[in-house]
Write a structure and sequence with these properties.
5-stranded mixed sheet
Length: 241
């Protein structure tokens, strides 16, 4: 994993008569990751309105919006947009009072990151007629969960027949949860679960469909509790470079 330095960028420090605001945020943000922005409004001698917006190629989004007659300090977390390549954006700050207004923009860089993709099923062995539950998680280079898009997700049976497919899926809160109901007469043997993300990277895992008794089922239940642990307690199975 390559290392990089967080740069703190100050949008501006504006000195009007008894009016000062400061906004800080990372100068470089990994696309799809969560970032922190903080704002302070000092020496207010009237009702002041402070608004901070994120402007990217996809949208203009309000991150912080407050009015106050007193000193204010607050922080918000926001999700950076997904980017296919390094992309420039802006943080726009606007402060308004009864007799004045001020607006300023500062550059921010959204960086395309290498993603780590993890696929989990809730257990390794299923009986015909059971439901296969699985999740897909994408992480940034520093192992932070990120939003991700997946062009194709598919399941194939032991004879390589495609029995389920999902197209153009996007993770919800960094995790994509899906499921497939096996037919009661499903073929016994090894099944493959394959995922392609929006960058064209591919990963897959295997699971088995077989008939098993109560004793074997209890053994796999114990294994299931380890493998399908609640996020972020994830077993790292494979990393896509």
């Amino acid at each position: 994993m390559s290392s990089w330095k967080w740069l703190i960028s100050t949008v501006c420090v504006v000195f009007c008569p008894f009016r000062v605001y400061i906004v800080t945020f990372p100068a470089v943000i990994s696309g799809g990751s969560q970032a922190k922005l903080c704002g302070s409004l000092l020496h207010a001698n009237e009702t002041l309105h402070l608004s901070v917006s994120l402007i990217s190629e996809q949208e203009k989004r309000t991150l912080l919006d407050t009015s106050t007659e007193a000193m204010f300090t607050g922080c918000v977390y926001f999700q950076a947009p997904l980017v296919e390549e390094d992309t420039k954006g802006n943080i726009e700050v606007e402060m308004r009072g009864d007799r004045f207004s001020h607006k300023q923009r500062s550059l921010v860089m959204f960086r395309k990151t290498k993603k780590l993709m993890i696929i989990q099923t809730d257990k390794p062995i299923y009986k015909p007629g059971q439901k296969v539950r699985f999740r897909i998680v994408s992480l940034s280079e520093d192992f932070a969960p990120i939003l991700a898009s997946y062009s194709t997700v598919e399941i194939r049976d032991p004879e390589n027949n495609r029995i389920a497919q999902w197209l153009n899926q996007t993770s919800d809160r960094s995790i994509l949860d899906l499921s497939h109901q096996l037919n009661s007469e499903a073929k016994l043997g090894g099944y493959s679960l394959t995922v392609w993300n929006s960058d064209g990277l591919r990963d897959n895992i295997q699971f088995t469909v077989k008939e098993y008794g109560t004793h074997m089922g209890s053994q796999y239940l114990e294994e299931q509790r380890l493998i399908y642990a609640p996020f972020p307690y994830i077993i790292f199975r494979k990393v896509i470079p």
